[in-house]
Structures are given as structure tokens and as C-alpha cells.
Amino acid sequence: MKKRAAFASVGCMIACIVALSGCGQTNTASSNNSTNSKVTAKLTNPNETAVTHGNNLITGSKTIAGKANQQHLVQIAQKDVKSYKAQLTAAQSALMNGDASTAITYYKRAAALQPNSGEALTAIGNVYRILKNDVKSAIPYYEQSTKVDPSYAFGWYQLAAAEAKLGDVSAAKSVIETGLKKVKSSDPAYATLQSELQTLEGGQSASKANSSK
Q1: What are the pLDDT digits (tens) for 54-64?
Q2: Contacts of 210 (CB under 8 A, 6+ apart)
Q3: CB 129 within 8 A of CB 154
Q4: How many beta carbons lie within 10 A of that of residue 85, not counting itself?
């Protein structure tokens, strides 16, 4: 499976090999190639930095990187408990710093503030899948995201990524096909879903061809 880029901040998406959990502050990429698991990133924005957690590379704003920034953002979130943005930013900082427990806590608070949004729910799934390497625990959050916010493309994308990670390409393909029916074609992420479907179909075709030899 080829590597993709994904946004993990306030807009949200993670691919089979890449994690997106928002849109702008953090990007997460990972490699599934056991023989070459090194993941690198070219930073073009001087205000961004990159950190690695296992085989995952997370790039994002310098303002959320580091434990000092995380502590500051958590304090803001604790003071402004009704601010969705404050909870989300604290969670994003924790994600970038590899603090899965704190990230989940504040993403859940964000989800509670906007229960009809799939963004934070998808991000929780990303934390389980990327930081905790627990794909099975991630799936219910992705599924919930697609239920409460079916027009949110990244929920479908990440759910498909999780299914593919578990080896069920047919399920991943079905998820993308359903997502394409729910997401508006005018959504910029619609093309990403189309591209992923083509990738999955190509993988299935190659697998069938190899098995017939």
C-alpha cells in the first residue's frame, strides 16, 4: 500500500498508511513496510516540526509540539471547558507528543461538545490505531463518526483504513463505496475517497491475479 499524507488537526482524516485527524495542525504518516519502516517528511513551513512515534511520523505546528506547550494547552482547555476548539487543540497537542491517554480524554470532551460532528470521534479512532496500535478499538469510533456525521469523508476514510489494516479489503472497499454515496461530490475529500477506492480495487485485482497463477 502506498504512503499518503493526512491531516490531523481540526478537520480530520487518516489513511491506511497515514493518519488524519483534523485539518491543519498535525499530519501523521506511517509505514507498513516491514523491511523499510523509516518514515520521513519534508517540512516546507518553518513554523512546523516533526516527531516520530514508532513507525508513525507526525508533523504539525510548533505551537502544539513539546510537553510545555501541551501543558499550557491543557490548562486552557481546563479553564474553558465549553470551548470545542480548546479541547480539540489540547488533544491535538497530546497526539503530537505521543500522549494517547490525554489525547483521548480531550478528544472525548470535544466530541461531547459537538455530538453531531464526526471530527473528534474519528480522531479518537486515530489515537487508538496510530499511537496504541489497537485497530479493533479504533473501529467503533470510526463507525460512530459515520453514523452521527455521514457527510464527513474522513470518518469513512479512516474506517476503511482500519478494515484494510485488519486484512479485510472487501470490507474496506464497501466502506468507501458507502462513503461516496454519503459525501457530497463537491467536498474536496470526495476525490480522495475515489482514489482510495481505485487503490483498493487495484489491490484486489492484483491479489486475484497472483492467486490464479
Answers
A1: 777 777 889 99
A2: none
A3: no
A4: 13
Residue 18 bridge partners (DSSP):
29
Residue showing cell 455530538: 115
Instruction: Say what the pLDDT of residue 34 is.
Output: 28
Under DSSP, is residue 137 helix (H, G, I), strand (E, B) or coil? helix
CA distance 17 to 162: 10
First to last CA, the chain: 22
Partners of 57 in the beta sheet? Answer: 29, 52
Which domains are assigned to the chain?
A: 18-63+119-205 (1.25.40.10)
Exposed, middle or buried, 113 (CB in 10 Å: 0-12/13-18/19+)?
middle
Q: What is the pLDDT of residue 24?
A: 34
**Separation between Cα atoms, residue 76 and residue 188, nearest integer Å:** 32
Longest dimension (CA), the chain: 63
Please write the tens of the pLDDT for every residue from 137-194: 999 999 999 999 999 999 999 999 999 999 999 999 999 999 999 999 999 999 999 9
Cell numbers linked to 167: 486484512
pLDDT digits 0-9 by tens, 118-141: 999 999 999 999 899 999 999 999
For residue 201 the three cell numbers come to 480495487
